[in-house]
UniProtKB/TrEMBL annotation:
It holds the Pfam family DctP. GO terms for cellular component: outer membrane-bounded periplasmic space. This is Tripartite ATP-independent periplasmic transporter solute receptor, DctP family. It comes from Desulfosporosinus orientis (strain ATCC 19365 / DSM 765 / NCIMB 8382 / VKM B-1628 / Singapore I). GO terms for biological process: transmembrane transport. Belongs to the bacterial solute-binding protein 7 family. Keywords: Receptor, Signal, Transport. InterPro entries: DctP_fam, TRAP_DctP, TRAP_DctP_sf.
Amino acid sequence: MAWKRWSFIILFLLLGLPGCESRVIDGQQVNRKEKIIIRFSHVVAENTPKGLAAIRFARLISERSGGTIEIQVFPDSQLFKDGEEFEALSRGDVEMIAPATSKISQLLPEWQIWDLPYLFSNLESVHQVMDGPVGRSLLKQLEEKNMVGLAMWDNGFKNLTNNIHPILSPVDFNGLSFRVMSPGILEDQFTYFGADTVLLPFNDVYKALQDGTVQGQENTISNIYTKRFSQVQKYLTLSQHGFLGYAVVMNKTFWDQLPGSARELIEKTMAEVTLWERETAERLNEVQLEEIEKNNLVTIHTLTNQEKTQWKKDFSSVYDKFEENNDSKLLEEAQKWSEPKENN
């Protein structure tokens, strides 16, 4: 099939991009007599931004450690579904996961700030918040749950698909049922306009759309494309209403037991891979949108900037609820850093 062939080509090209060559950093070698195994579990396909970055990270760590550190990557919910990852990490069944920020908000409610509709105007504003005081503060919170936050990765901005009618404004949610990733803001943004919501693990979404358990969902283009949602949906609204990102985290007890040289190697390599992952996510979303358009399986509506401005006003109640349940200063700080750089 065309999507499989194109996915393979993307995987081949991206893994062959410059920068994957073997480089060993002086002073970073761990004890060669004790090989370190790190199991990295995630729930998306290998040809997504997160999947490709996990492969790249594992490859570079192996090369730079001389094979003394091995990252074993388990994609596509091979080990655990997205609702099971935290318990698996806590038990020590895996050492590393990369859950969506929305999933983390079930443990740490302030992480819902990443779900606020139209908080970010573009990817630059997302990265300013990620890499600034707000992002650092949220990553620090993970230590309360015995986790270490190593990085934050992109998937991109979310869009809407459904089987019933075009969605041109939030009032069109009325009467539809949508799959949502987690309770809280992601549910509120739909139920406020009269929609029903169903909580489902990511890898159950395709079947639910196919058999009508739910009528619509929100996701990035890369997820819509790699999971073939456009084959079981009729309408796609390029709303870019919310951001979908990930936190790459490790079990803190395991992390603290690693040799200092191993931690340093992991941190340096993760920082490099994070920049690569963000660029890759943006590129894949662009390329795969073109493929969806070529396949001509869904009717596509693109929101104008004026329509997006109105949508943000329509979602004001979601912001009010966030401020009621969380520190309003966090939102103020995020809004400040999400502005163009010249205004900061």
